[in-house]
Amino acid sequence: MDFPTPLAQETLIERQPCGCRVPVIFTSPHSGRDYSAAFIAQARLDPRNLRRSEDSFVDDLFAAAPECGAVLLAARFPRAFCDVNRERWELDPAMFAETLPDFVNRASPRVEAGLGTIPRIVAADTPIYRERLSFAEAQTRIATCWAPFHDRLAALIAQTKAEFGACLLVDCHSMPHASLMGLGRVDIVLGDAHGTTCADAITTRIETAFRALGFVVRRNHPYAGGFITRHYGRPQEGVHAIQIELARRLYMDEANITPSAGFQPLQQAITRLIALLAAEAPALMAQAG
Question: How many structural domains does the chain have?
C-alpha cells in the first residue's frame, strides 16, 4: 500500500509487507517518472531526453519486496528534478541566479560533474535548463522531495531496528551502457563503499546469489555506493546498506526507454534474490554482530 499522508502521496511510493515482516528495506530513489508540466517547460530537453538519467523500471524490477516481507520505498519525482542520492545541499553555483548561502556544498565531485542535488545535466553532459534557477526553487524542491524521502527512510530504518535489532537497506539502481565501456561484460555492481557500509558476509551472499543466477558481478567499481548507502550504512550500529546497480541492457531498450524481452527474466531473478534475503538476512546480520 502507498504511504498515506498527502505530501508523501505526491512524492513517494511506499509499499509495506503483505504479511510477515523481515528486517529488509529496498529503495529505488531514481526510478521516479512523474515529470510535471512546469519542469518540462523549464527544460531545454524534450521529455524523452530528460529521462536519460532515470533508473527506469527499477521499482518494477523489485516489486516483489512486499510479498517477501520487505518494505519498498521509491520516489515518484524524477532524478533530473531532485536527486535524493546526494547530500541535502550539493548545488552547482553556475545554475543559480544569485549567490548561494555558505552552507551549500559547491565543490563536491558530484557537483563538479553536474549531478548535484538539483542536477545541471542528464546523461552525456546534456544541460537541462534554459535559464538559471532561483535558490528559492532549490529550497522548495529539497523541502518537498528530498526531505520527505529521507525523513521517511530514516523512520523506516529506526522502526526496523527497534523491531528486529538490525536492518538491511538495499539501494537499487541501474547503469547505462556508456558507464560500462571498456570494462568487459558487467551485469551487476554491488557497492558497499569498499566494505564500510555492509558486513562482508552479506555482500558476499548477494554476490554469490547473483553469480549462481548467471550474472557477472563486480564490487565497488565503477559504483561504490552513493549518499544513501554511505549515509545510512553503519554496520557497527546494526544498519547494513548496500547499493545494487543493474546493467540497463539486461532489461530495457535504452534509446526508447521501454522494457525489453529481458525484463521478465531479470525481474524473476531479482524476486529470487529478494526471497533469499528475506530468509537469510536476519541470521547474516546476527552473525555480523
Answer: 1
